[in-house]
């Protein structure tokens, strides 16, 4: 286009328009404004395309440019018509409209029209001419100026003459005859004229209104077209040169439209929300449009979620939405930056993206928040070995962190990372910055003979938070350790002499170490796992001697006493290690190391690595008990300790106990023993069992009172959970002899645990020791708890408390109104009116406990049974079982009363406990007429207990029920298992006869009735002895 090749430019723009590439509207605008390009139609098309997609700020200029092109097109049309048409006619007929201009068909029909219709046409023609002339009159001034600017006076005169209506030219237009379509054969779809354009093969209904009279002329009308073109030119020029300014009273205007402004604003916002929602939906990101339009927090989350993208279009949409809905742009940019660091793009792409989106400009507005987000979110996602990424991270901190200390420190990081990129690839830089990190382990993998000196120089510049860098000595120590064990030499050391030679080869690096690093280096050689496995014991002893000698030499070189103190401590530590290594030669240690017990061998290995450090020895000894080993094994481990060690088995027991108690107290412990994955209560149980065994064996160096004092200190600590205290005291009670005060303390703790567990939300009550001191105080506490009991779980807790507490005074149990068990049972029954089953189970279990403790005497027992009977059928089983706890016949009457009230027994009305109680209380004869007798017999058969069966048979025999007693004995005594389901002799005999040859040949159906009558007659005369004898005979047969 700049070269003047408008044809090619037009072709390109045509492709942009046809392809709907809205980004190309700028190019289309430039070509549309190009005055050198003569194709006005194409220019207008391109400007229309630009108007469709341009930003609001460009719309006014584009409208003006399009009007200029349209005006040029109209000028060209006017000039063309003036050159080709005859303009001498003075007739006004050319201005007739569609209503007044007849077609040829109309002319034929017009012969039949009346004179009135002709008058109507003439009136319309005159009206149209008047309108046209008035329009020309209004725009005469503008049109005159316009035409004057482009043509001569002769042009204007000829143009006015040309505008006269040319009826002859008009009548020479379309002469096609209109054929009336009657749709007589009903082959076309009839419709209103309004829908004619959208229905193919249509027929316009003659019933509806016709639009023919109101349409623009369908034939060529040059005069009218020329007039309209001039009018359009005038109006466009007025648009370009003038503007109508409407002045009004703003106060009155606001008053009139105030009620509509809010509606308009609200509607505008809804439309904008809808448009944005549609844009979100096109992204396919799973955004809930309805929720997005109504939920502010969801809207903010959605915007921030859109910022987590690599797509520029989506990110731009996120920025647009953030501006519209008031979401922090800083937060959007920060979220986008976090996503960039967490994505898989390369650091070069990340850097380019930051520059293109100008993230630094926005993020630098809040330096404190930026640094906080970078440290808490971004730095975590960066691999410590990716120096390029870390460098980009610190560059951003430096650029956007303002004058914060972290920003100033970032400069040091940048300088150091640039040096490390080439010389220490793979170094985890992030780990170096962590406090208390193992610098030696971090440096060791990346150190080589080529980079060790370089890293030693730059390591001191590592900006740690403590303010001190890494000493060069540390770098040399790490390299010496690596070199010693992983030397590139082809010859691997095999003998002690070879290893000592390897040690001496590290002399240059040892010379550059400070005392602490020399100690670390020697420790790695003589006490570590790798050193113990690879290096012989004699060689390790030799290392310690040479290291001690070196330390003393260095100490003598120091001029100041303070400077030499470090070397003195180092020589003392290494010398102690040498002595410790000598212990490993002893037969005691060798026996321990070669023990058949795997656990003992493990303790020997761990002892070898302690270096006789007092803290490590204590840790090892405590581990023996913590890991469940016995005192005997502990004594074996202690036997290899140095002679100057003061550790005794008693000390170990107390140290281990304090360690466990400190664990529950949450205090820091001096002994670093790992108990992760173990149950501390089980460990405590083991330790206290060892204490018990020690005391049982006559141990005198450890008093039981010392152990109890430690446990009491835990119970007195308010920071320890009550539940924990109860568990610890329970374990202590199992192995130690608690005094009365300790037992009282246990009760208080347990009571507090039960109360806290059941009434924590309903009752803010702390159980004190005074509340359990006497029968009256416990009764008052129980009354309070009963008052606040609202659930079955709380009722169960009341029962637990009564079991836990010591007995009340005897008079409390005698009185029905003061009996604590009866008070709890009344509360349970009160709560269980609607659903009594859960409460009845609790009452049955608790009543057994109370009855065996003689805390539910006669009158109270009777009251409980009667209260249960009031509940009806649902409590038959429970009331009967509770009644059977007593041997009082008056109470047993309740059982009989219950069973007589039942017409048909169900499985829910009895269980094994009830049936066994009936037999043990000798109530079988009494219950013989009741429905419970059948389940009782079935229970005896299933139980197979001959003692119970014999008891039931004798009860029936003594009561005169000989037939039933014989039947019961005959069923169970030595009868084959296949016949156990027969419950009377006649049934069994029928079965036996049916199996005989007679029964099969005759047909048992014919004999069944006679056999039954006969058996029932004779069985009444059978005695118990007869039935037993019959059974024996059957067995012999």
UniProtKB/TrEMBL annotation:
Query: Which segments carry the region annotation Disordered?
Result: 84-121
Q: Which residues form the NBAS subunit of NRZ tethering complex C-terminal domain?
A: 612-739
**Record field: compositional bias (Acidic residues):** 84-95, 104-119
Q: Which Pfam families match?
A: NBAS_11th (PF22913)
GO biological process assignments = retrograde vesicle-mediated transport, Golgi to endoplasmic reticulum
Q: Which GO terms describe its molecular function?
A: SNARE binding
Gene Ontology cellular component terms for the protein in this record: Dsl1/NZR complex
PANTHER family according to UniProt: NBAS SUBUNIT OF NRZ TETHERING COMPLEX, NEUROBLASTOMA-AMPLIFIED SEQUENCE
Give the protein's recorded name. Neuroblastoma-amplified sequence-like 2
Q: Which organism is it from?
A: Homarus americanus (American lobster)
């Amino acid at each position: 286009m700049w070269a003047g090749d408008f044809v090619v430019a037009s072709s390109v723009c045509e492709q942009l328009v046809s392809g709907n590439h809205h980004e190309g509207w700028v190019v289309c605008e430039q070509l549309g404004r190009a005055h050198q390009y003569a194709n006005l139609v194409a220019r207008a098309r391109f400007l229309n395309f630009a108007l469709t997609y341009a930003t609001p700020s460009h719309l006014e200029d584009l409208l003006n440019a399009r009007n200029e092109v349209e005006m040029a097109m109209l000028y060209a049309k006017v000039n063309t018509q003036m050159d080709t048409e005859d303009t001498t006619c003075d007739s006004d007929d050319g201005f007739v409209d569609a209503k007044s201009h007849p077609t040829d068909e109309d002319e034929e029909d017009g012969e039949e029209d009346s004179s009135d219709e002709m008058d109507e046409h003439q009136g319309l023609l005159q009206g149209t001419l008047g309108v046209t002339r008035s329009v020309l009159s209004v725009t005469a001034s503008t049109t005159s100026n316009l035409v004057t600017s482009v043509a001569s006076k002769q042009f204007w005169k000829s143009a006015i003459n040309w505008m006269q209506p040319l009826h002859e030219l008009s009548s020479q237009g379309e002469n096609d005859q209109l054929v009336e379509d009657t749709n007589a054969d009903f082959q076309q779809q009839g419709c209103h004229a309004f829908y004619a354009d959208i229905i193919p093969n249509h027929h316009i209904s003659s019933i509806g209104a016709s639009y023919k009279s109101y349409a623009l002329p369908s034939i060529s009308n040059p005069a009218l077209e020329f007039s309209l073109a001039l009018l359009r030119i005038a109006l466009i020029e007025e648009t370009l040169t003038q503007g109508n300014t409407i002045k009004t009273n703003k106060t009155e205007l606001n008053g009139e439209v105030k009620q509509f402004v809010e509606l308009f604003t609200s509607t505008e916002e809804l439309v904008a929300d809808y448009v944005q929602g549609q844009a979100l939906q096109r992204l396919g990101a799973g955004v809930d449009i309805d929720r997005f339009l109504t939920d502010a927090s969801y809207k903010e989350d959605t915007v921030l979620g859109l910022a987590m993208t690599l797509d520029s279009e989506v990110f731009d949409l996120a920025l647009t939405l953030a501006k519209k809905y008031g979401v922090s742009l800083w937060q959007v940019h920060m979220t986008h930056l976090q996503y960039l660091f967490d994505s898989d793009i390369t650091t070069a792409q990340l850097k380019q993206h930051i520059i293109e989106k100008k993230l630094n400009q926005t993020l630098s507005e809040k330096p404190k928040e930026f640094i906080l987000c970078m440290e808490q979110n971004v730095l975590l996602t960066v691999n410590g070995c990716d120096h390029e990424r870390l460098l980009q991270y610190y560059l951003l901190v430096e650029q956007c962190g303002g004058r914060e200390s972290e920003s100033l420190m970032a400069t040091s990081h940048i300088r150091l990372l640039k040096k490390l990129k080439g010389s220490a690839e793979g170094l985890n830089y992030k780990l170096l910055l962590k406090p208390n990190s193992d610098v030696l382990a971090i440096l060791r993998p990346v150190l080589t003979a080529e980079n060790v000196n370089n890293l030693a120089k730059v390591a001191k510049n590592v900006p740690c938070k403590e303010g001190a860098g890494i000493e060069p000595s540390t770098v040399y120590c790490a390299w010496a350790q690596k070199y010693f064990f992983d030397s590139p030499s082809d010859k691997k050391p095999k003998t002690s002499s070879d290893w000592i030679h390897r040690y001496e080869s590290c002399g240059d690096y040892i010379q550059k170490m400070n005392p602490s690093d020399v100690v670390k280096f020697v420790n790695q050689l003589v006490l570590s796992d790798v050193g113990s496995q690879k290096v012989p014991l004699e060689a390790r002893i030799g290392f310690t001697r040479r290291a001690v000698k070196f330390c003393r030499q260095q100490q003598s070189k120091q001029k100041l006493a303070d400077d030499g103190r470090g070397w003195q401590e180092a020589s003392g530590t290494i010398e102690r290690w040498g002595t410790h290594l000598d212990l490993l030669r002893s037969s005691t240690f060798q026996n321990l190391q070669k023990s058949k017990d795997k656990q003992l061998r493990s303790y020997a290995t761990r002892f070898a690595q302690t270096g006789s450090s007092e803290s490590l020895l204590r840790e090892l000894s405590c581990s023996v008990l913590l890991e469940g080993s016995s005192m005997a094994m502990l004594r074996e481990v202690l036997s290899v300790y140095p002679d100057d060690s003061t550790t005794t088995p008693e000390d170990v027991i107390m140290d281990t106990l304090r360690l466990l108690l400190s664990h529950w107290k949450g205090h820091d412990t001096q002994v670093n023993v790992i108990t992760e994955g173990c149950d501390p209560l089980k460990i405590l149980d083991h330790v206290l069992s060892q204490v018990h065994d020690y005391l049982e064996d006559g141990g005198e160096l450890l008093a039981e009172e010392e152990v109890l004092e430690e446990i009491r200190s835990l119970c007195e600590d308010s920071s320890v959970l009550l539940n924990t205290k109860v568990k610890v005291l329970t374990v202590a009670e199992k192995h130690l002899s608690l005094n009365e005060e300790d037992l009282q303390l246990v009760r208080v703790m347990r009571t507090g645990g039960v109360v806290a567990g059941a009434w924590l939300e309903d009752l803010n009550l702390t159980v004190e020791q005074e509340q359990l001191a006497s029968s009256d105080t416990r009764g008052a506490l129980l009354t309070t708890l009963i008052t606040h009991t609202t659930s079955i779980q709380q009722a169960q807790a009341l029962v637990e408390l009564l079991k836990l507490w010591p007995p009340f005074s005897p008079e409390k149990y005698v009185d029905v109104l003061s009996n604590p068990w009866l008070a709890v049972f009344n509360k349970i029954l009160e709560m269980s009116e609607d659903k009594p089953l859960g409460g009845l189970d609790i009452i049955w279990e608790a009543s057994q406990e109370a009855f065996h403790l003689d805390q539910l005497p006669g009158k109270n027992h009777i009251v409980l049974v009667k209260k249960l009977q009031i509940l009806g059928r649902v409590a038959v089983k429970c009331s009967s079982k509770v009644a059977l706890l007593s041997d009082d016949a008056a109470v047993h009457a309740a059982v009989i009363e219950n069973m007589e009230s039942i017409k048909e027994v169900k499985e829910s009305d009895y269980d094994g406990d009830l049936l066994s109680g009936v037999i043990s209380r000798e109530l079988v004869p009494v219950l013989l007429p009741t429905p419970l007798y059948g389940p009782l017999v079935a229970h005896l058969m299933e139980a197979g207990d001959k003692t119970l069966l014999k008891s039931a048979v004798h009860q029936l025999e003594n009561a005169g029920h000989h037939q039933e007693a014989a039947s019961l004995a005959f069923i169970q005594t030595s009868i084959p298992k296949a016949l156990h389901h027969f419950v009377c002799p006649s049934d069994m005999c029928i079965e036996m006869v049916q199996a005989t040859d007679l029964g099969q040949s005759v047909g048992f159906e014919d004999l069944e009735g006679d056999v039954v009558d006969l058996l029932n007659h004779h069985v009444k005369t059978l005695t118990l002895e007869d039935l037993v004898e019959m059974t024996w005979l059957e067995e012999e047969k």
